[in-house]
Give the backbone structure.
Amino acid sequence: MIEKIGVQAKVEGYIKEGAIYLEVKTDREGILIGKEGNVLDSLQFLIKRMVNKRLMEDIKIYLDINQYKAKKVERLSKMALHLGKKVKKTGKSILIGPYNPHDRRGIHLALKNDPSLKTESLGEGELKRIKIIPVGKSL
């Protein structure tokens, strides 16, 4: 599929806990990632549909290009920890986002082990906001 787009790339894959992980390495990542990862998300969706149709199973597919998603999770985690400190200092909740499910999960996980904070996803649909709340405060 990537070759049909006109991009040369090396694809490595592995299976972990029943999911297929694909890591693409290319010099032209911008074309495959797109603005805020929109093209990457679409490619992952299409590959998942093709694989699941062929295998007639619902298998999770994770696609990353030049570790874009891994780096993004790291950035979001750092941001979440910084905002968590701000929430604890001010005692006031912060509303951030909206984020897709993958990004939301990274933010929730970054703050999960802090007993003085909790997080909640708010909204409907694919993109939701996250509220970072100091424990003991009402929503």
In short: The chain has five helices and six strands. Residues 13 and 49 are 17 Å apart (CA to CA). The radius of gyration is 18 Å.
